[in-house]
From TrEMBL:
<dbReference type="GO" id="GO:0050446">
    <property type="term" value="F:azobenzene reductase (NADP+) activity"/>
</dbReference>
<dbReference type="InterPro" id="IPR050712">
    <property type="entry name" value="NAD(P)H-dep_reductase"/>
</dbReference>
<dbReference type="GO" id="GO:0010181">
    <property type="term" value="F:FMN binding"/>
</dbReference>
<protein>
    <submittedName>
        <fullName>NADPH azoreductase</fullName>
        <ecNumber>1.7.1.6</ecNumber>
    </submittedName>
</protein>
<feature type="domain" description="NADPH-dependent FMN reductase-like">
    <location>
        <begin position="4"/>
        <end position="146"/>
    </location>
</feature>
<dbReference type="InterPro" id="IPR029039">
    <property type="entry name" value="Flavoprotein-like_sf"/>
</dbReference>
<dbReference type="Pfam" id="PF03358">
    <property type="entry name" value="FMN_red"/>
</dbReference>
<keyword id="KW-0560">Oxidoreductase</keyword>
<dbReference type="InterPro" id="IPR005025">
    <property type="entry name" value="FMN_Rdtase-like_dom"/>
</dbReference>
<dbReference type="GO" id="GO:0005829">
    <property type="term" value="C:cytosol"/>
</dbReference>
Length: 193
């Protein structure tokens, strides 16, 4: 069985180190995980005024999440929290009320920063939001990556063996988490919050 994982890159930057990390994670993931990016760049700012008539970008976002067995968030830390673009995407996906796309979905959170705490506070902020959205989060292992460009190669792989092993272990745990959650509660079986 293959699990489809939709991944979010929290940064909108064309030079995002978290996009590099996302590609590295994919390169060391178990073979039964299939990845696709869920884009957030073109979403307008969320407003409740749109709830009765969602724009096509927001409908595409919700459709992409519906096509995933699980979601992976790879996010930077902006001002000790998550980037506005990522929060905006979560707001769109969790609305209108009663049509929360994250309800019961297996989820994992990871991020990279050049700083020593490696997105720890952004991840805690994101976990709080995902808890309210009723996502089934992998709570361990936690992964706060202090980004070193020498750990990654130009082809999207991980060139540092120690980093590769850590990321491989994280993704193996995520794969097991997905299977556990979907065994107990298959996608679509939960009540939307």
């Amino acid at each position: 069985m293959t699990f489809k994982v939709g991944y979010f890159v929290g940064s909108l930057s064309s030079t995002s180190i978290n996009r590099v990390l996302a590609h590295g994670l994919i390169s060391v993931s178990p073979d039964d995980l299939e990845f696709f990016e869920i884009p957030i760049r073109d979403l307008p700012l969320y407003s409740q005024d749109f709830d009765a008539d969602y724009p096509r970008e927001a409908l595409a976002l919700k459709s992409a999440i519906a096509g995933a067995d699980a979601v992976l968030f790879v996010t930077p830390e902006y001002n000790r929290s998550i980037p506005g673009g990522l929060k905006n995407a979560i707001d769109w996906a969790s609305r209108p009320w009663g049509q929360n796309s994250f309800d019961h979905i297996p989820a994992a959170v990871i991020g990279a920063s050049v700083g020593a705490i490696g997105t720890a506070l952004a991840q805690q902020s994101l976990r709080g939001v995902l808890s309210f959205c009723n996502a089934r989060q992998m709570t361990a292992p936690e992964a706060y990556i202090q980004f070193n460009p020498d750990d990654f190669d130009e082809d999207g792989g991980v060139s540092n063996p120690r980093t590769a092993e850590f990321l491989r272990s994280f993704m193996g745990e995520f794969r097991d988490h997905i299977q556990r959650v979907l065994t107990v509660l298959p996608r679509g079986a939960g009540a939307a919050s």
